[in-house]
Amino acid sequence: MEIGIICFTMNGFVLAENIDDYLKKTGHRTAVYTKSRYLRDVEAEPVRDSLKLWTKKMFETKDGLIFIGAAGIAVRAIAPFVENKTYDPAVVVIDEQGKFCISLLSGHLGGANELTELISKKIGAVPVVTTATDVNGRFAVDVFAKKNRLYISNMTLAKEVSARLLNGEKVGFISELPVKGMLPEGLEPDQDLELGIYVGIHYHRQPFEQTLWLIPRSITAGIGCKKGVSSEQIEELFEEVCQINGIFHEAVARAATIELKKEEPGLKEFCQEMGISLITYSAGELLEVEGDFTSSDFVQSVTGVDNVCERSAVKGSDGGAVIQKKMGKNGVTVSFAQEEWSVEFE
């Protein structure tokens, strides 16, 4: 996580330094800021703007914020910028003596609860976590989705799942992917239940009257194209492949192609509009990919490899299985491959 830590007193600064050092060692990227006329000549970045402007900037650029000071200061600072739990940053508040560490905002999806527990163990603070599923020891669908890198199809249904479980009701659970661990209390592999969770990439599979799809971003779209094709041409074929296979757009994590096409404007625009990354490989790297691929003499003469889209899809999915072989239309070819994936209950 990219985390900003702000303090207002010398005691707070000493604690901030300790937390900053620890979080860096655990793989986070952190920076310490001070907002006080009494804190001079310390190794931190002074906040010269108002706290409100600083907080606005942090909300736009950071994954998490840590306020070392009174909870009221943090609440007033973040209040104008709180919008949606799916993308608000994690916010944690710690008193300057390090007695209490409070998960204030985005406890699950943002990771504030996890950050609170991590810091509390380090500094010996009492972790204060108030989310209902945590307090009651119940399964939290948003935490499960985050840890297993699953896209939540419907946040309203996700809340309903939590509400039913907290009320002691049963919720269904079906997965087209391998599952490790035991189902937590309240989840049942029963398709007769009204509400349930389905883990998979296919939208036509709806085992429950109310189905919450949790979608693994496990698909690589291998794309080949002629010079000058538009993003609309690529999108048209991409959409057709998704419809033929009944695959959610959200299941596609990246596009892959040959290095020769890395600056193709239409391809770059398509990836940007879809919100997916574009990875490229040399002809030599693609030739090393093993599998039964649809060969083309023309593609071989232009690129040096007999098939771009299928080989790129497999390469981009770490040797995953091809679930859609090469399809071509209007100067574009598309293939889908799915990487090996499983979900795990702790």
Describe this protein's structure.
The protein has twelve helices and 19 strands. The chain has a seven-stranded mixed beta sheet with strand order 3-2-1-4-5-6-7, sandwiched between helices. A five-stranded mixed beta sheet has the order 8-13-12-9-11, with helices on one face. It starts with a strand and ends with a strand. The protein is α/β, with parallel strands linked by helices. A hairpin with a 2-residue loop joins β17 and β18. The chain folds into three domains: 129 residues, Rossmann fold (3-Layer(aba) Sandwich); 74 residues, Udp-n-acetylmuramoylalanyl-d-glutamate--2,6- Diaminopimelate Ligase, Chain: A, domain 1, CATH 3.40.1390; 120 residues, CobE/GbiG C-terminal domain (Nucleotidyltransferase, domain 5), CATH 3.30.420.180. α8 crosses α9. The model has no long low-confidence stretch (mean pLDDT 91).
Helix content, binned percent = 25-40%
Unreliable parts: none
Mean pLDDT: 91
Taking strands numbered 1, 2, ... along the chain, how are they ordered across the largest sheet? 3-2-1-4-5-6-7
Oligomer: single chain
Count of domain modules:
3
Work out the number of β strands.
19
Give the C-level CATH assignment of the largest domain.
Alpha Beta
Q: Structural class of the secondary structure composition?
A: alpha/beta
Query: What characteristic shape results from the CA principal axes?
Result: globular
CATH topology of the largest domain: Rossmann fold
Distance between the termini: 22 Å
Largest sheet: 7 strands, mixed
Put simply, the count of helices is 12
Strand content is 25-35%
CATH architecture of the largest domain: 3-Layer(aba) Sandwich
